[in-house]
Protein backbone atom coordinates (compact mmCIF):
# COMPACT_ATOMS: atom_id res chain seq x y z
CA UNK A 1 0.00 0.00 0.00
CA UNK A 2 1.48 3.36 -1.03
CA UNK A 3 2.24 5.80 1.75
CA UNK A 4 0.93 9.36 1.81
CA UNK A 5 4.43 10.65 1.03
CA UNK A 6 4.10 9.13 -2.43
CA UNK A 7 0.96 11.13 -3.19
CA UNK A 8 0.84 13.26 -6.28
CA UNK A 9 1.97 16.88 -5.76
CA UNK A 10 -0.81 19.43 -5.56
CA UNK A 11 -1.88 21.90 -8.22
CA UNK A 12 -0.21 24.86 -6.52
CA UNK A 13 3.08 23.05 -6.01
CA UNK A 14 3.30 22.04 -9.67
CA UNK A 15 2.21 25.49 -10.87
CA UNK A 16 4.80 27.35 -8.83
CA UNK A 17 7.66 24.86 -9.00
CA UNK A 18 9.09 26.79 -11.95
CA UNK A 19 10.59 30.17 -11.00
CA UNK A 20 9.73 31.47 -14.47
CA UNK A 21 6.01 30.86 -13.85
CA UNK A 22 6.12 32.72 -10.54
CA UNK A 23 7.98 35.66 -12.05
CA UNK A 24 5.62 35.79 -15.04
CA UNK A 25 2.54 35.74 -12.81
CA UNK A 26 3.95 38.49 -10.58
CA UNK A 27 4.84 40.62 -13.62
CA UNK A 28 1.39 40.25 -15.17
CA UNK A 29 -0.43 40.99 -11.90
CA UNK A 30 1.81 44.02 -11.39
CA UNK A 31 0.90 45.32 -14.86
CA UNK A 32 -2.82 44.80 -14.18
CA UNK A 33 -2.59 46.47 -10.76
CA UNK A 34 -0.67 49.44 -12.15
CA UNK A 35 -3.12 49.98 -15.02
CA UNK A 36 -6.26 49.82 -12.90
CA UNK A 37 -5.17 51.06 -9.46
CA UNK A 38 -2.74 53.92 -10.08
CA UNK A 39 -5.14 56.04 -12.19
CA UNK A 40 -7.97 55.22 -9.75
CA UNK A 41 -5.89 56.45 -6.81
CA UNK A 42 -4.96 59.61 -8.67
CA UNK A 43 -1.25 58.80 -8.54
CA UNK A 44 -1.00 59.46 -12.25
CA UNK A 45 -3.35 60.66 -14.97
CA UNK A 46 -3.29 61.51 -18.64
CA UNK A 47 -3.53 65.23 -18.03
CA UNK A 48 -4.20 67.95 -20.57
CA UNK A 49 -2.31 68.86 -23.70
CA UNK A 50 0.65 71.19 -23.57
CA UNK A 51 2.24 72.37 -26.80
CA UNK A 52 5.23 73.69 -24.87
CA UNK A 53 6.01 70.22 -23.50
CA UNK A 54 5.40 68.18 -26.66
CA UNK A 55 7.91 65.36 -27.26
CA UNK A 56 9.60 66.05 -23.93
CA UNK A 57 12.02 63.16 -23.25
CA UNK A 58 11.77 61.10 -20.04
CA UNK A 59 12.78 63.05 -16.97
CA UNK A 60 11.67 64.31 -13.59
CA UNK A 61 8.52 66.00 -14.91
CA UNK A 62 7.48 63.18 -17.27
CA UNK A 63 8.88 59.82 -16.20
CA UNK A 64 8.25 58.26 -19.61
CA UNK A 65 8.23 61.48 -21.59
CA UNK A 66 5.43 63.39 -23.29
CA UNK A 67 3.72 62.65 -26.60
CA UNK A 68 3.20 64.90 -29.63
CA UNK A 69 0.40 66.75 -27.79
CA UNK A 70 2.36 67.20 -24.59
CA UNK A 71 0.43 64.52 -22.70
CA UNK A 72 2.10 62.45 -19.99
CA UNK A 73 3.01 59.10 -21.55
CA UNK A 74 2.96 57.28 -18.20
CA UNK A 75 -0.64 58.21 -17.46
CA UNK A 76 -1.65 57.51 -21.05
CA UNK A 77 0.14 54.14 -20.94
CA UNK A 78 -1.77 53.03 -17.84
CA UNK A 79 -5.17 54.14 -19.14
CA UNK A 80 -4.43 52.51 -22.51
CA UNK A 81 -3.56 49.31 -20.66
CA UNK A 82 -7.07 49.18 -19.23
CA UNK A 83 -8.49 49.01 -22.75
CA UNK A 84 -5.91 46.53 -24.07
CA UNK A 85 -6.26 44.21 -21.08
CA UNK A 86 -10.05 44.55 -21.17
CA UNK A 87 -10.15 43.56 -24.82
CA UNK A 88 -7.89 40.57 -24.16
CA UNK A 89 -10.04 39.37 -21.27
CA UNK A 90 -13.28 39.96 -23.18
CA UNK A 91 -12.04 37.98 -26.17
CA UNK A 92 -10.83 35.12 -23.95
CA UNK A 93 -14.21 34.87 -22.20
CA UNK A 94 -16.42 35.24 -25.28
CA UNK A 95 -14.29 32.94 -27.44
CA UNK A 96 -14.40 30.33 -24.68
CA UNK A 97 -18.19 30.48 -24.36
CA UNK A 98 -18.75 30.26 -28.11
CA UNK A 99 -16.06 27.63 -28.63
CA UNK A 100 -17.33 25.47 -25.77
CA UNK A 101 -20.88 25.59 -27.11
CA UNK A 102 -19.90 24.67 -30.68
CA UNK A 103 -17.41 22.03 -29.56
CA UNK A 104 -19.83 20.32 -27.16
CA UNK A 105 -22.63 20.21 -29.73
CA UNK A 106 -20.30 18.96 -32.48
CA UNK A 107 -18.74 16.30 -30.30
CA UNK A 108 -21.90 15.05 -28.62
CA UNK A 109 -24.37 14.98 -31.51
CA UNK A 110 -23.14 12.87 -34.40
CA UNK A 111 -25.46 14.41 -37.00
CA UNK A 112 -24.13 17.91 -36.31
CA UNK A 113 -20.49 16.89 -36.12
CA UNK A 114 -19.70 17.07 -39.83
CA UNK A 115 -21.22 20.51 -40.63
CA UNK A 116 -19.86 22.11 -37.47
CA UNK A 117 -16.42 20.56 -38.01
CA UNK A 118 -16.34 21.98 -41.54
CA UNK A 119 -17.28 25.38 -40.14
CA UNK A 120 -14.43 25.17 -37.62
CA UNK A 121 -11.97 24.14 -40.34
CA UNK A 122 -13.15 26.95 -42.62
CA UNK A 123 -12.70 29.58 -39.91
CA UNK A 124 -9.23 28.30 -39.02
CA UNK A 125 -8.17 28.29 -42.68
CA UNK A 126 -7.98 32.10 -42.67
CA UNK A 127 -4.93 33.83 -41.14
CA UNK A 128 -5.93 35.26 -37.75
CA UNK A 129 -5.02 38.89 -38.31
CA UNK A 130 -6.44 38.90 -41.85
CA UNK A 131 -9.83 37.58 -40.75
CA UNK A 132 -9.96 40.00 -37.81
CA UNK A 133 -8.95 42.86 -40.09
CA UNK A 134 -11.76 42.02 -42.52
CA UNK A 135 -14.42 41.75 -39.81
CA UNK A 136 -13.43 45.01 -38.11
CA UNK A 137 -13.29 46.80 -41.46
CA UNK A 138 -16.83 45.60 -42.26
CA UNK A 139 -18.51 46.29 -38.90
CA UNK A 140 -16.49 49.28 -37.70
CA UNK A 141 -13.71 49.91 -35.24
CA UNK A 142 -15.46 50.05 -31.88
CA UNK A 143 -14.26 48.21 -28.80
CA UNK A 144 -17.27 45.87 -28.91
CA UNK A 145 -16.71 45.07 -32.59
CA UNK A 146 -13.02 44.39 -32.01
CA UNK A 147 -13.91 41.94 -29.23
CA UNK A 148 -16.54 40.25 -31.40
CA UNK A 149 -14.19 40.02 -34.39
CA UNK A 150 -11.30 38.56 -32.39
CA UNK A 151 -13.67 36.17 -30.59
CA UNK A 152 -14.84 34.88 -33.98
CA UNK A 153 -11.20 34.35 -34.90
CA UNK A 154 -10.18 32.45 -31.76
CA UNK A 155 -13.40 30.60 -30.85
CA UNK A 156 -12.65 27.78 -33.36
CA UNK A 157 -9.46 26.95 -31.42
CA UNK A 158 -11.50 26.30 -28.29
CA UNK A 159 -14.18 24.49 -30.30
CA UNK A 160 -11.69 22.08 -31.83
CA UNK A 161 -10.23 21.18 -28.44
CA UNK A 162 -13.67 20.72 -26.85
CA UNK A 163 -14.95 18.64 -29.78
CA UNK A 164 -11.96 16.27 -29.69
CA UNK A 165 -12.28 15.75 -25.94
CA UNK A 166 -16.05 15.32 -26.11
CA UNK A 167 -15.74 12.61 -28.77
CA UNK A 168 -13.69 10.56 -26.30
CA UNK A 169 -15.64 11.28 -23.12
CA UNK A 170 -19.09 10.59 -24.58
CA UNK A 171 -18.12 6.91 -25.05
CA UNK A 172 -16.86 6.39 -21.48
CA UNK A 173 -18.79 4.07 -19.13
CA UNK A 174 -19.93 6.75 -16.69
CA UNK A 175 -21.55 8.71 -19.53
CA UNK A 176 -23.28 5.56 -20.76
CA UNK A 177 -24.45 4.91 -17.20
CA UNK A 178 -25.87 8.43 -16.94
CA UNK A 179 -27.77 7.87 -20.17
CA UNK A 180 -29.11 4.55 -18.90
CA UNK A 181 -30.35 6.26 -15.74
CA UNK A 182 -32.32 8.72 -17.84
CA UNK A 183 -30.21 11.79 -17.14
CA UNK A 184 -31.08 14.65 -19.47
CA UNK A 185 -28.65 15.30 -22.31
CA UNK A 186 -27.86 18.93 -21.31
CA UNK A 187 -27.06 17.74 -17.78
CA UNK A 188 -24.74 15.07 -19.13
CA UNK A 189 -23.01 17.57 -21.39
CA UNK A 190 -22.37 20.03 -18.57
CA UNK A 191 -21.88 17.76 -15.56
CA UNK A 192 -20.11 14.76 -17.06
CA UNK A 193 -18.40 16.18 -20.14
CA UNK A 194 -17.65 19.86 -19.66
CA UNK A 195 -16.42 19.50 -16.08
CA UNK A 196 -13.84 16.96 -17.23
CA UNK A 197 -12.39 19.07 -20.04
CA UNK A 198 -12.03 22.40 -18.25
CA UNK A 199 -8.26 22.00 -17.86
CA UNK A 200 -7.33 22.31 -21.57
CA UNK A 201 -9.99 25.01 -22.00
CA UNK A 202 -8.46 27.09 -19.20
CA UNK A 203 -4.98 26.75 -20.66
CA UNK A 204 -6.13 27.66 -24.17
CA UNK A 205 -8.09 30.64 -22.83
CA UNK A 206 -4.91 31.95 -21.24
CA UNK A 207 -3.12 31.75 -24.57
CA UNK A 208 -6.06 33.40 -26.34
CA UNK A 209 -5.87 36.27 -23.83
CA UNK A 210 -2.29 36.87 -24.98
CA UNK A 211 -3.06 36.37 -28.68
CA UNK A 212 -5.99 38.81 -28.49
CA UNK A 213 -3.88 41.54 -26.92
CA UNK A 214 -1.26 41.10 -29.62
CA UNK A 215 -3.89 41.06 -32.38
CA UNK A 216 -5.58 44.18 -31.00
CA UNK A 217 -2.23 45.95 -30.97
CA UNK A 218 -1.71 44.92 -34.60
CA UNK A 219 -5.15 46.16 -35.63
CA UNK A 220 -4.67 49.46 -33.83
CA UNK A 221 -1.22 49.86 -35.37
CA UNK A 222 -2.80 49.41 -38.81
CA UNK A 223 -5.43 52.01 -37.96
CA UNK A 224 -8.46 49.70 -37.99
CA UNK A 225 -8.74 48.92 -34.29
CA UNK A 226 -10.75 50.84 -31.70
CA UNK A 227 -11.49 54.55 -32.03
CA UNK A 228 -8.17 56.46 -31.89
CA UNK A 229 -9.71 58.69 -29.21
CA UNK A 230 -9.68 55.60 -26.94
CA UNK A 231 -6.03 54.93 -26.11
CA UNK A 232 -4.65 51.41 -26.42
CA UNK A 233 -1.07 50.22 -26.47
CA UNK A 234 -1.33 49.54 -30.19
CA UNK A 235 -2.61 53.05 -30.87
CA UNK A 236 0.26 54.50 -28.83
CA UNK A 237 2.77 52.58 -30.95
CA UNK A 238 1.01 53.78 -34.10
CA UNK A 239 1.12 57.39 -32.88
CA UNK A 240 4.79 57.18 -32.01
CA UNK A 241 6.09 55.58 -35.19
CA UNK A 242 6.13 58.88 -37.09
CA UNK A 243 8.39 60.35 -34.40
CA UNK A 244 10.68 57.34 -34.13
CA UNK A 245 13.71 59.31 -35.35
CA UNK A 246 13.64 62.05 -32.70
CA UNK A 247 11.31 60.62 -30.01
CA UNK A 248 11.71 56.85 -30.01
CA UNK A 249 10.61 56.76 -26.36
CA UNK A 250 7.01 57.20 -27.56
CA UNK A 251 6.90 53.62 -28.88
CA UNK A 252 9.30 52.16 -26.34
CA UNK A 253 7.00 52.06 -23.30
CA UNK A 254 3.86 50.67 -25.02
CA UNK A 255 5.99 48.19 -26.93
CA UNK A 256 7.55 46.92 -23.70
CA UNK A 257 4.11 46.76 -22.05
CA UNK A 258 2.75 44.63 -24.90
CA UNK A 259 5.78 42.34 -24.90
CA UNK A 260 5.80 41.83 -21.13
CA UNK A 261 2.05 41.18 -20.94
CA UNK A 262 2.00 38.69 -23.80
CA UNK A 263 5.17 36.90 -22.70
CA UNK A 264 4.06 36.62 -19.07
CA UNK A 265 0.66 35.24 -20.10
CA UNK A 266 2.32 32.65 -22.33
CA UNK A 267 4.60 31.52 -19.51
CA UNK A 268 1.71 31.35 -17.05
CA UNK A 269 -0.24 29.32 -19.61
CA UNK A 270 2.62 26.85 -19.86
CA UNK A 271 2.67 26.57 -16.07
CA UNK A 272 -1.09 25.96 -15.97
CA UNK A 273 -0.75 23.26 -18.62
CA UNK A 274 1.86 21.42 -16.57
CA UNK A 275 -0.10 21.83 -13.33
CA UNK A 276 -3.38 20.65 -14.83
CA UNK A 277 -1.84 17.74 -16.77
CA UNK A 278 0.28 15.55 -14.46
CA UNK A 279 1.69 13.60 -17.39
CA UNK A 280 3.18 16.73 -18.92
CA UNK A 281 4.49 17.82 -15.54
CA UNK A 282 6.35 14.53 -15.09
CA UNK A 283 7.87 14.71 -18.57
CA UNK A 284 9.11 18.31 -18.17
From TrEMBL:
It is found in: Cell membrane. Pfam families: BPD_transp_1 (PF00528). Signal peptide: none annotated. One of its GO terms (cellular component) is plasma membrane. The chain crosses the membrane at residues 20-44, 85-109, 129-155, 201-226, 246-269. Its main location: membrane. GO terms for biological process: peptide transport; protein transport; transmembrane transport. It comes from the Bacteria. The keyword Chaperone does not apply. It is a multi-pass membrane protein. Residues 85-269 form the ABC transmembrane type-1 domain. Keywords: Cell membrane, Membrane, Peptide transport, Protein transport, Transmembrane, Transmembrane helix, Transport. PROSITE patterns: ABC_TM1. Belongs to the binding-protein-dependent transport system permease family. This is ABC transporter permease. It comes from Cereibacter changlensis.
